[in-house]
Specification:
Elements: H1 2-32, E1 45-46, E2 49-50, H2 62-85, H3 87-114, H4 121-126
């Protein structure tokens, strides 16, 4: 029990510090924040659109595609970062695996480019 507590005290200290900081920020926000009630205070607002009744506004799915592409390529960058940290341990075999991984990424990016998934201008003008 004593050894586990010695090993976990930095995490406990971090948790306590985060909790104190959270409480301090929320208290400062409630003390220093504005108290005014304007005309638009309680109106629902989403992505620059005031919803005044009909909530059935259609958005194009290309916004979601960009988010998915970003997450996918961002995670792949994380994998390459992990490889770069351990490049001495993995040696030539790890280098070949990283080259194959990058090649697959480039093929996927080329495919997305060829099918027009990365074109913004045509996506915005189709619905207008």
């Amino acid at each position: 029990m004593g050894q586990a507590l010695v090993e976990l005290w930095p995490i406990l200290l971090y948790f306590i510090f985060t909790l104190v900081l959270l409480i301090a920020v929320m208290a400062a926000s409630s003390v220093l924040g504005p108290r005014g009630q304007g005309h638009s205070t309680h109106l629902p607002y989403e992505s620059g659109i005031l919803s005044l009744g009909n909530a059935r506004i259609k958005f194009g799915n290309h916004f979601f595609l960009y988010a998915i592409f970003f997450v996918i390529f961002d995670l792949e960058t994380l994998f390459l970062f992990a490889w770069a940290i351990s490049v001495e341990q993995v040696g030539v075999v790890g280098f070949i695996e990283a080259v194959v991984f990058i090649f697959i990424l480039l093929v996927a990016l080329f495919y997305l480019w060829r099918i027009g998934a990365l074109r913004i201008s045509s996506k915005h003008t189709e619905g207008s």
